[in-house]
Write a structure and sequence with these properties.
The protein has two domains: 203 residues, Alpha/Beta hydrolase fold, catalytic domain (Rossmann fold), CATH 3.40.50; 51 residues, no CATH class. Helix 4 packs antiparallel against helix 5 and helix 5 packs across helix 6. It has nine helices and eight strands. The protein is an alpha/beta fold. An eight-stranded mixed β-sheet has the order 1-2-4-3-5-6-7-8, with helices on both faces.
Length: 270
């Protein structure tokens, strides 16, 4: 049974859910979602793991003022509140950035890493690939106009459908969930006081714990290239690409995603 929890850290109250018993498996959401993106993974793994998912500041039901904070400190507070660790961290996109930063700050607190379409602290910004310039310009105009519904629609095209794919490629309940999660985040007060973590780019080889990299074949080319770099750099990793999916493969193809994750977790447990 899934249970809600709330963690006070600073003046924020971080909202999350947890379920199951066993080794802690912490699911860290993307920057265009909230912890609900992991619904299929919670259901699939709570019989073997203590599965934990929470909404970061600016997302979901988490309440957070504009105060200085650290994502690593917030994750530490969640783990302390639930009394768990070391943990297996599964991070999607910006959630992957948090997982990497936490693992570098507290390597003993991380049993294994799963990085999905991951961001990296200190990674250089990348220009829009050819064919995406018009979408990027439309997004800029929508943001300048304060048209949040249009922003949400364009971001769904970029991050759910894939930047080089047809708009509305992904339909049904998955698209509805994306638009709801991202819509909630777009309407929350922006927080500008996150303390920047040290760059992780030149420390990646220090991540010696077992790692699994999962990417989508339709994602931004620079993210796929980043995963190729990580595969060459991380000393104890394996990689999988899920064809026909973009930035959020666990939402598009949960059965394939869960199969890759289950095999990896079985090896880690062994």
């Amino acid at each position: 049974m899934t249970k809600d929890f709330g963690v006070t850290t600073g003046a924020a109250t971080i909202a999350g859910v947890h379920a199951g018993d066993g080794p802690p498996l912490v699911l860290l959401h993307a920057g265009v979602a909230d912890h609900r993106m992991w619904r299929d993974q919670i259901a699939a793994f709570d019989s073997d793991f203590h599965v934990i998912a929470y909404a970061r500041r600016e997302f979901g039901q988490t309440e957070s003022p504009n105060e200085p904070f650290s994502q690593v400190d917030d994750l530490t507070a969640v783990l302390g509140h639930l009394g768990v660790g070391p943990a297996i961290l599964v991070g999607s996109s910006q959630g992957g950035r948090v997982a990497i930063d936490f693992a570098l700050a507290d390597p003993g607190g991380v049993e294994a890493l799963v990085l999905v379409s991951t961001a990296i602290s200190g990674a250089p910004s990348e220009p829009a690939p050819p064919g995406v310039e018009a979408l990027s310009e439309a997004l800029d105009r929508a943001e300048e106009d304060g048209d949040l519904d249009r922003v949400n629609t364009i971001e769904a095209h970029l991050w759910l459908d894939g930047p080089l794919c047809a708009e509305s490629r992904v339909q049904g309940a998955v698209r509805d969930l994306f638009l709801d999660m991202n819509g909630v985040a777009l309407r929350k007060s922006e927080i500008r006081l996150e303390r920047d973590p040290p760059s992780a780019m030149h420390r990646l080889a220090e991540l010696s714990m077992p790692a699994l990299l999962i990417s989508g074949g339709l994602d931004f080319p620079y993210i796929r290239s980043r995963h190729a770099m990580l595969e060459r750099t991380l000393p104890n990793c394996r990689a999988a690409e899920i064809a026909g999916t973009a930035h959020l493969p666990n939402l598009e193809q949960p059965a394939q995603f869960n199969a890759h994750l289950r095999e990896f977790l079985r090896e880690v447990s062994a």
